[in-house]
Amino acid sequence: MEIKGNVTEFILFGLSDDPNTQIFCFIFFFFCYISLLTGNLVILISIHFSHLFHQPMYYFLSHLSSMDIYYTSTVTPKLIQNLLTKRKTISYDYCMFQVFSMHFFGSIEVFILTAMALDRYVAICKPLHYIVIMNRKKCNLLVFAAWAGGAAHSFPQLSMALKLPFCGPNEIDHYFCDVFPLLEIACTDTYMSGVLVVINSGIIVLAIFVILFVSYAIILWTLRTHSAEGRRKALSTCGSHFTVVVLFFVPAIFSYLRPPTTYPEDKMFALFYTIIAPMFNPLIYTLRNTEMKNAMRKVWCQKILGKGNLNQLH
């Protein structure tokens, strides 16, 4: 990549300068990252090796788990590594990679969550047409559209970051590279660039969140005519999904739907959509989901018993 100005690396301020806080954060986020990888891999394997893979909701959930792993892995390992070093640096190339991959995988996750909301809407509001509307071909098309949407969102962000000239301080008051912190240290007028980021990120995230909120309001209204058992089952799956939506969307809206500047609270809000929400997703989707728990029990018991039988033969 062509380096603009004389900056070949950036210094990340990270989460704290206090050594004791850094040690605590290292242990905490290392545990979070391992939990995130384990939980999402268990979800992925359980769905792919069970009958749930053929159901649209769990098909989308497997893609969501993949995105959680990709999305978080672009940021968390570097964060954990920097918590152990005195000088927290990131190369120019890796910084640009973070800008692209964060927005690419993050926006795909947004669109996958939207597809999951569409699935719940059709299942509850149009149950007689569910099999026709949410067939595998259309589900594949929705996933492809999510990837295409991710590319359409992230390439302009990357292009904007690559064009920024850096000729002064190279210190970023964050724990990863993003467009707003880079605009703060660029040695040019970045007002229009900031407005474009708000339009391309903030307004889109807000619009999708409003659409999801309205769809769930319609679902709740429709559930009035369902049986008590039907309401309970629907509220269980919809409640899990809406919890994930709130954990991801609300901090993202705060981060991107505002004047193009950085605030001290940015890092705390970013932790929610980069680490906390992806870590809790497997727990949220399995805690009250009997189908998912049964599939996990069946898949993993078979694997353990199969390994035990193989050892006995040897």
Automatic annotation (TrEMBL):
Give a GO cellular-component term: plasma membrane
Q: Which PROSITE patterns match?
A: G_PROTEIN_RECEP_F1_1, G_PROTEIN_RECEP_F1_2
**Topology versus the membrane, per the UniProt entry?**
Multi-pass membrane protein
**Where is it localised?**
Cell membrane; Membrane
Which parts of the sequence belong to the G-protein coupled receptors family 1 profile domain? 39-285
Q: What is its main location?
A: membrane
Cite a single GO MF annotation: olfactory receptor activity
Keywords of the record, alphabetical order, are: Cell membrane, G-protein coupled receptor, Membrane, Olfaction, Receptor, Sensory transduction, Transducer, Transmembrane, Transmembrane helix
Mind telling me which residue stretches traverse the membrane in this protein?
21-45, 96-118, 139-156, 198-223, 235-257, 269-287
The UniProt entry's sequence similarity note says:
Belongs to the G-protein coupled receptor 1 family.
The protein, known as: Olfactory receptor
- This chain's source organism reads Sarcophilus harrisii
